[in-house]
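User: Hey, quick favor. My workstation is busy. Could you predict this chain's structure for me?
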Amino acid sequence: MYCGAIRFHRESPGFCCSNGRVSLSTLDVPEELRLFFGSSQMALHFKANSHTYNNVFAFTSFGVTYDKELCRNDKNVYTFRVEELVYHFLNDLMPKEGKGTNLQLYFHDVENEVNNRSAVSDKLKEELVLMIMKILEVNPYFVLP
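Assistant: No problem, here it is.
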Protein backbone atom coordinates (compact mmCIF):
# COMPACT_ATOMS: atom_id res chain seq x y z
CA MET A 1 0.00 0.00 0.00
CA TYR A 2 1.37 3.41 -0.99
CA CYS A 3 -0.78 6.00 0.76
CA GLY A 4 -1.90 4.36 4.01
CA ALA A 5 -5.62 4.75 3.21
CA ILE A 6 -8.15 2.63 5.03
CA ARG A 7 -9.82 0.39 2.46
CA PHE A 8 -12.93 -1.69 2.18
CA HIS A 9 -12.43 -5.43 2.52
CA ARG A 10 -12.26 -6.25 -1.21
CA GLU A 11 -10.38 -3.16 -2.43
CA SER A 12 -6.91 -3.80 -3.78
CA PRO A 13 -3.96 -2.11 -2.04
CA GLY A 14 -3.39 0.39 -4.86
CA PHE A 15 -7.05 1.15 -5.61
CA CYS A 16 -7.16 4.52 -3.81
CA CYS A 17 -4.00 6.10 -5.25
CA SER A 18 -3.38 4.10 -8.44
CA ASN A 19 -0.36 2.38 -6.92
CA GLY A 20 1.30 5.66 -5.94
CA ARG A 21 0.67 7.56 -9.20
CA VAL A 22 -1.87 9.88 -7.52
CA SER A 23 -0.69 12.04 -4.65
CA LEU A 24 -2.85 14.48 -2.74
CA SER A 25 -1.29 17.42 -0.99
CA THR A 26 -2.27 18.07 2.59
CA LEU A 27 -3.93 21.39 3.27
CA ASP A 28 -3.41 23.45 6.36
CA VAL A 29 -6.53 23.28 8.46
CA PRO A 30 -7.82 26.74 9.43
CA GLU A 31 -7.45 27.35 13.15
CA GLU A 32 -11.20 27.75 13.60
CA LEU A 33 -11.91 24.24 12.28
CA ARG A 34 -9.75 22.76 15.02
CA LEU A 35 -12.81 23.24 17.23
CA PHE A 36 -14.29 20.12 15.65
CA PHE A 37 -11.45 17.73 16.47
CA GLY A 38 -9.20 19.55 18.94
CA SER A 39 -8.75 18.75 22.60
CA SER A 40 -8.36 22.26 24.00
CA GLN A 41 -10.85 23.51 26.60
CA MET A 42 -12.49 25.69 23.93
CA ALA A 43 -12.81 22.75 21.50
CA LEU A 44 -14.27 20.49 24.20
CA HIS A 45 -16.76 23.21 25.15
CA PHE A 46 -17.72 23.71 21.49
CA LYS A 47 -18.24 19.99 20.86
CA ALA A 48 -20.33 19.61 24.02
CA ASN A 49 -22.54 22.57 23.00
CA SER A 50 -22.43 22.39 19.20
CA HIS A 51 -26.24 22.12 18.91
CA THR A 52 -26.66 25.34 20.87
CA TYR A 53 -24.12 27.15 18.68
CA ASN A 54 -25.82 25.80 15.56
CA ASN A 55 -29.23 26.96 16.78
CA VAL A 56 -28.08 30.49 17.52
CA PHE A 57 -26.94 30.89 13.89
CA ALA A 58 -29.91 29.11 12.29
CA PHE A 59 -32.32 31.12 10.12
CA THR A 60 -35.30 28.94 10.98
CA SER A 61 -36.43 26.61 13.71
CA PHE A 62 -38.06 23.18 13.57
CA GLY A 63 -41.83 23.18 13.56
CA VAL A 64 -44.10 20.17 13.79
CA THR A 65 -47.65 19.19 14.61
CA TYR A 66 -47.37 16.36 17.11
CA ASP A 67 -49.36 14.29 19.57
CA LYS A 68 -48.80 16.14 22.86
CA GLU A 69 -50.27 13.34 24.95
CA LEU A 70 -47.96 10.73 23.44
CA CYS A 71 -44.87 12.94 23.88
CA ARG A 72 -45.34 13.39 27.62
CA ASN A 73 -42.42 11.94 29.52
CA ASP A 74 -44.49 10.43 32.34
CA LYS A 75 -44.96 7.17 30.47
CA ASN A 76 -42.26 4.51 30.30
CA VAL A 77 -40.89 5.22 26.82
CA TYR A 78 -40.61 8.68 25.29
CA THR A 79 -42.25 8.68 21.86
CA PHE A 80 -42.33 11.47 19.32
CA ARG A 81 -44.96 11.06 16.62
CA VAL A 82 -45.62 13.60 13.89
CA GLU A 83 -49.34 14.00 13.26
CA GLU A 84 -49.64 16.30 10.25
CA LEU A 85 -46.81 18.66 9.39
CA VAL A 86 -43.06 19.03 9.62
CA TYR A 87 -41.88 22.48 8.60
CA HIS A 88 -39.31 25.23 9.06
CA PHE A 89 -40.68 27.97 11.27
CA LEU A 90 -39.58 31.42 10.09
CA ASN A 91 -40.02 34.37 12.45
CA ASP A 92 -40.94 37.87 11.27
CA LEU A 93 -37.85 39.87 10.35
CA MET A 94 -38.23 42.13 13.38
CA PRO A 95 -39.22 40.88 16.84
CA LYS A 96 -42.59 42.10 18.08
CA GLU A 97 -41.33 42.37 21.63
CA GLY A 98 -38.25 41.29 23.53
CA LYS A 99 -35.14 39.84 21.96
CA GLY A 100 -34.79 38.43 18.48
CA THR A 101 -34.26 34.79 17.60
CA ASN A 102 -33.10 32.89 14.52
CA LEU A 103 -33.26 35.05 11.38
CA GLN A 104 -34.14 38.15 13.44
CA LEU A 105 -30.62 38.18 14.90
CA TYR A 106 -29.28 39.06 11.44
CA PHE A 107 -31.47 42.19 11.19
CA HIS A 108 -32.44 43.37 14.66
CA ASP A 109 -29.93 45.45 16.67
CA VAL A 110 -26.91 44.32 14.66
CA GLU A 111 -24.66 46.75 16.55
CA ASN A 112 -25.02 44.41 19.54
CA GLU A 113 -25.10 41.16 17.56
CA VAL A 114 -22.46 39.33 19.62
CA ASN A 115 -24.21 40.20 22.88
CA ASN A 116 -27.64 39.34 21.47
CA ARG A 117 -26.47 35.94 20.25
CA SER A 118 -24.56 35.19 23.45
CA ALA A 119 -27.62 36.04 25.55
CA VAL A 120 -29.68 33.28 23.90
CA SER A 121 -28.18 30.65 26.21
CA ASP A 122 -25.90 30.51 29.26
CA LYS A 123 -23.98 27.74 27.47
CA LEU A 124 -22.60 30.12 24.83
CA LYS A 125 -19.20 31.78 25.14
CA GLU A 126 -18.94 35.23 23.59
CA GLU A 127 -15.45 34.46 22.25
CA LEU A 128 -16.77 31.47 20.29
CA VAL A 129 -19.81 33.35 19.01
CA LEU A 130 -17.47 36.04 17.65
CA MET A 131 -15.20 33.39 16.09
CA ILE A 132 -18.15 31.76 14.30
CA MET A 133 -19.35 35.15 13.07
CA LYS A 134 -15.91 35.76 11.54
CA ILE A 135 -15.95 32.32 9.89
CA LEU A 136 -19.33 33.12 8.33
CA GLU A 137 -18.03 36.44 6.98
CA VAL A 138 -15.57 34.65 4.69
CA ASN A 139 -17.81 31.70 3.80
CA PRO A 140 -18.67 32.00 0.08
CA TYR A 141 -21.97 30.17 0.63
CA PHE A 142 -23.17 32.54 3.34
CA VAL A 143 -24.09 36.12 2.55
CA LEU A 144 -25.08 38.61 5.21
CA PRO A 145 -27.86 41.03 4.28
